[in-house]
Amino acid sequence: MPFVELETSLPAERLPSGLPMKLCEATATILGKPAERVNVTVRSGMPMVLAGSAEPCAQLLVSSIGVVGSAQQNQGHSARFFDFLTAELGLGPERIVIRFFPLEPWQIGKNGTVMTFL
């Protein structure tokens, strides 16, 4: 059950139409998870500074069980997420940062329990 949060200083009107669904589909493909399990949040117009500059930028947080737990996994994921984000947001790769967070099943609640028991 991946959780993806995109925060950007770009205003909402500069984001492509349907970005949350496109990011959901891209995440499902990149992480090899069903789109029905992907959760996406997009926050635009955020006051942000990246690498000491307030120029337009974005930060992607990717959390999931079992697929973001190693440098080797994340190197491949990173390349594919960067391809998606640079194309969709029109930002250079130097204005984007990605953070990966591995999760354990007991850290995600759903349907009144945790994923460990589902």
Automatic annotation (TrEMBL):
<keyword id="KW-0456">Lyase</keyword>
<comment type="subunit">
    <text>Homotrimer.</text>
</comment>
<keyword id="KW-0470">Melanin biosynthesis</keyword>
<dbReference type="GO" id="GO:0050178">
    <property type="term" value="F:phenylpyruvate tautomerase activity"/>
</dbReference>
<dbReference type="InterPro" id="IPR001398">
    <property type="entry name" value="Macrophage_inhib_fac"/>
</dbReference>
<keyword id="KW-0963">Cytoplasm</keyword>
<keyword id="KW-0007">Acetylation</keyword>
<protein>
    <recommendedName>
        <fullName>D-dopachrome decarboxylase</fullName>
        <ecNumber>4.1.1.84</ecNumber>
    </recommendedName>
</protein>
<dbReference type="InterPro" id="IPR019829">
    <property type="entry name" value="Macrophage_inhib_fac_CS"/>
</dbReference>
<dbReference type="GO" id="GO:0033981">
    <property type="term" value="F:D-dopachrome decarboxylase activity"/>
</dbReference>
<dbReference type="GO" id="GO:0005615">
    <property type="term" value="C:extracellular space"/>
</dbReference>
<dbReference type="Pfam" id="PF01187">
    <property type="entry name" value="MIF"/>
</dbReference>
<comment type="function">
    <text>Tautomerization of D-dopachrome with decarboxylation to give 5,6-dihydroxyindole (DHI).</text>
</comment>
<comment type="similarity">
    <text>Belongs to the MIF family.</text>
</comment>
<dbReference type="InterPro" id="IPR014347">
    <property type="entry name" value="Tautomerase/MIF_sf"/>
</dbReference>
<dbReference type="GO" id="GO:0042438">
    <property type="term" value="P:melanin biosynthetic process"/>
</dbReference>
<dbReference type="GO" id="GO:0005737">
    <property type="term" value="C:cytoplasm"/>
</dbReference>
